[in-house]
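We modelled the chain as a single entity of 146 amino acids. Its sequence is:
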Amino acid sequence: MSLEFKALALLALVAGAILGYVAWAHHIAAEAVAACEARHDAADAAALRRNIEAQQEIRVEANRMAQRARDVAPGVAAASRRLFNALACPERPAPPPGSASAPAQPDLRADVLREVEGRLGALALEADLRGAAGRGCEQSYDTLRK
């Protein structure tokens, strides 16, 4: 065999070894990338699952607070009416016996105050419900920002 043939054979052998090494390294790198992506996908899925669970807990808590506000509202309204009646609208004394009773005049001030009290109660309930919803919204946003 000639020297040129041996040199070409050696060159072909070295080139084959280099190409084999490059192909093997590329295969190892591709496997590493796939494993890394799988770990990241699993971590992303776990984070998403945690966020969804936190969102559900926040929604349940907001609904519980809103229901508690709705449950308490009638009792608060009744207590408010009793207090209003005791303080602002005392009963009128009965006319003395034997006197002509005057025609009953509506107490306009009491009627207006009752109307205002009723509307304020409705506004307070709405404020409680919106406050609970707002706190739930803030908690949801904070959960997503983590």
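As a brief sanity check on the tokenised model: The chain has a mean pLDDT of 81. Helices lie at 3-87, 108-145.
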